[in-house]
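Example 3.2
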Amino acid sequence: MISDLSNPKTVIVFTSVIPQFIGQGARPVDTLVLGVMFAFIGFLSLVTYALVFSTAAKLLRDARVTRAILRVGGAILTVFGVGLAIERPAV
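Structure, written as tokens:
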């Protein structure tokens, strides 16, 4: 919470973006509801990132997966290198 409140982007969003979605006759509670929704969606996205990267870290600990990723990456770089080697220069 301290990190979010001290982040200038958060201040910019709350002062420039959120008021666009509030009508002229809106009550302060309407602004609060939008702010809470914004914070909740941000929290859900961070939890999702944590779960995805936690799973990815577990996969990368497997030597077979790491070896396969390195081989696929090497093959892609080799294909790009061959493509560059046989490419004709522009005139």
